[in-house]
Amino acid sequence: MREFAFQPTARIDQAVQAHASDAGAAFIAGGTTLIDLVKLDVMRPARLVDVSRLPLDDVERLDDGRLRIGATVTNTDLAHHPLVTEHYPLLSQALLSGASTQLRNMATTAGNVMQRTRCPYFRDVAAACNKRQRGSGCDALHGINRMHAVLGVSEHCIATHPSDMCVAMAALGATLTLEGPNGTREMAFGDFHRLPADRPDLEHELEEGELITHVTLDTPVEGAGSHYLKLRERASYEFALASAGAVVAVKDGTIDEARLALGGVGTKPWRAVEAEKALRDQPAETATFERAAEVAMRGAIPREHNAFKIPLARQAIARALSRAVAASVNR
Amino acid sequence: MMEHSETRSQGSGETTVNLTVNGEPCQLTLPPNVVLLDALRDRLGLTGTKKGCDHGQCGACTVHIDGQAVNSCLRLAVMCEGRHITTVEGLASDVGLHPVQQAFLEHDAYQCGFCTPGQMMSAAALLEDSRIADDDAAVREAMSGNLCRCGAYKNILSAIQDARRHVSPQRTEGESP
Description:
The structure holds two protein chains of two kinds. Chain A has twelve helices and twelve strands. By secondary structure, chain A is an alpha+beta fold. In chain A, the strands form three sheets. In chain A, strands 4-5-8-6-7 form a five-stranded antiparallel β-sheet. In chain A, strands 9-10-11-12 form a four-stranded antiparallel β-sheet. A three-stranded parallel β-sheet of chain A has the order 1-3-2, covered by helices on one side. By secondary structure, chain B is an alpha+beta fold. Chain B has a five-stranded mixed β-sheet with strand order 2-1-5-3-4, sandwiched between helices. In chain B, strand 3 (62-65) and strand 4 (68-71) form a beta hairpin. The radius of gyration of chain B is 17 Å and the shape is globular. Chain A binds chain B through residues 1-8, 10, 28, 31-32, 35-36, 38-40, 48, 50, 52-53, 76, 80-82, 99-103, 105-106, 236-237, and chain B through 1, 4-5, 7, 9, 11-12, 15, 31-33, 35, 54-56, 59, 62, 68-71, 73-76, 78-79, 81, 122, 125-126, 131, 140-146, 173-174.
């Protein structure tokens, strides 16, 4: 592993300052993505700013009913937190479907938001990758692209966003709190990750020195049921080929409110806004779910090896919706 | 925070870190880019913890940090200031083998043995974690981060379920280890 400077920090402002004053700095908390990629020489930080001991490990319910999650809460602790299992079971399900026990024990909430793609061309410094090296090309476009994205892709990048947690957050609705050299700001979760377009190297909206300090989930949808369905090549410890996170509230057999987000098929955590519209005020039945699935995957662009993901995702969506309805409180 | 501020950082030079390994306090001076796995094996001579993939994919390097199973190949040693590390060498006590070790022996839960230390560390942690259900499916899921290329999974599962009789869950929701 190449050398880097290491800087422990005890306060948020100290961490922000340390990052802002060194263009080669990266924050480290769980390290499960970062250290892996430093070993591969894909990430080359000159300085690691350790934020793992900042006082950001609380999960608390705010007065307005939202849930505020500290940046360093581990995936394990978040998945099992009583406020999450009771009010946001979708998030708990998604978290527990990701990675392994050991990785979930290490990985943090903000770190998971910042998780990098598993695209093998991104992870291989001998391959062309616009995300790793601006303007170098994309070997995935005509390569082995079985695992790659079909939604939100560009001619410059088709790398899949790998996170399960982020799919749940996209569906539930959340706000990120960012602390930077110029103060604090908030950003809707859906605005944080960028589409690759012609700059796949720019993955998010963080500015130099900015640190994610909290993720605040929207108030739970009243009476809603939810389900996270993850389809993958082995039953555990595997990334999604396609996943769907659904939150549905039903009133007198009609869908009152619906949230839908997809994983494994998009270049960012994919909120299926049009599909949500196709669900609202419709009868809570299979035909509706299938129509929404059709809408959600409209505009998908397959490559040589990943066309199978489109019907697979449709099936995941329809089934996740039907299970979410089954779990809802019928009013 | 005090303990952490004592970690001395000198650019990319050597850093001194104090930690407890298998109950013994120890001090290491090492560059920031040394992972806990290499510190344990190369600096402390604790070679029971194995290096398999070195990328958090196989689980051979699993140790406990403050009671939690982690991949020691992905944790920088300098981030372990003040932490309590348990390796497979620290699993047994004066009384004898840890119930998981005894059960692995009785159930022949290995073949080549390379993944065994990691398997046992994950097993020991899951048996003490009340958040993990005790049925076979839950155990398989909790153990999925430990690969066994010999395919001794069947006996590993039966060993863990047998060891359960001798271990009572200690950690409950929201409680620090």
